[in-house]
């Protein structure tokens, strides 16, 4: 569910250790909230510095690296409330601190929220948050069929 | 319009045949609904397994490959109705079955819907769905100028 | 803030000159509106032609190249008004004209708008548009701490 796409220049996240540590911390942020670990997908995209422009400029090897992170939240949407949004970005800040901020990288992130009902894993509808079925997904750490995972689709008049 | 971004690990979709078959089935899903074939863009992104973390873990060559699909719908938005959403994901499930599920891949997809009025092809406004102009785009299978494709922009007070 | 992700086939944007010119024109579009230059991030993704399907087909070296652009707007959202949207796409058309249209490329772009309050740069909340603090960010062309950049997060009952 949470999908983290990390676009980083060559010279950053070159070794498995740094990627794994980051991905593990991201995962912890969501499992703490009760979500299954396997919901958390982190993709690293190593880019050539010449393909990254910030303010119309590329950076040299001696400049601070610039990392752009796109976070997509699907399973749980935030109520439209300043304090709730603030809490979310604070959580994210805590996660990215050792992996981006403390390393002296420049970075930017934004969170996009998309429709839960247009989301599936292995063609199963993920169970309701905090449901008994979700608990099983947490315990097994994989998508397990359950009653309600495959509701019959009734064709409405028009749709895409 | 529909943009399918398919992030797949090395070892999957390595040959043209498997990519073409998947892209063709995706395309059919939308042409069946009356949309021009060229609206359907499918991008394959082959990733190093070491750049994909699911639940904080990478997978080995003997694990199931994990494919993450992002679908963006722009041309037609869904009414906010459970049965309509269900119908859409059912269509998608049918498409991905032979290409992901039956191959034993783990996969996850979500659909994002974005604003139709912030979308252009070759700087033309795509014609209204089911209009005569759209019919021409279907027949010619490319973006063709028409009355209304280039409306004059009147600068509002402020915008981005 | 504005993030431009440009997915282009090999054979296009191969040299630094063409990428830089495009990124500079994109940047100008936003600095003209008073935003800091460094808000503008442009990422080029060179793709193998065999990984791009349009209407179920790949293109050959003699076909028109197809470039897909994803624009994400975060800092300023558009009022839901046809003329405002039209003005935005007209601005974009002006930018892409010399870099895509005049080169004879086929292209498609869409703009996605995401929540401003779920966006940070170097873990700072970007200052309000047209505020004195934003002015400083414009002048220094980097994220500078200011009062209000780190508001204390009060944990709400539940959030992600």
Question: What does this entry look like structurally?
Answer:
The structure is a homotrimer of 160-residue chains. By secondary structure, the first copy, chain A, is of the alpha/beta class. Chain A has a single domain, classed as 2-Layer Sandwich (Macrophage Migration Inhibitory Factor), CATH 3.30.429.10. Chain A has three helices and six strands; from the N terminus they run βαβββαββα. A four-stranded mixed sheet of chain A has the order 2-1-4-5, with helices on one face. In chain A, helix 1 runs antiparallel to helix 2 (82-101). Chain A is elongated and about 55 Å long. The first copy, chain A, starts with a strand and ends in a 20-residue tail after the last helix. The mean pLDDT of chain A is 94. Chains B and C meet through helix 1, strand 2 and strand 6 of B and strand 3, strand 4, helix 2 and strand 5 of C.
Summarize the topology.
3 copies of one chain form a homotrimer.
Chain A: E1 3-9, H1 16-31, E2 41-47, E3 52-54, E4 66-73, H2 82-101, E5 106-113, E6 119-121, H3 132-140
Parallel strand pairs in A: 1-2, 4-5
Antiparallel strand pairs in A: 1-4
Helix pairs in contact in A: 1-2
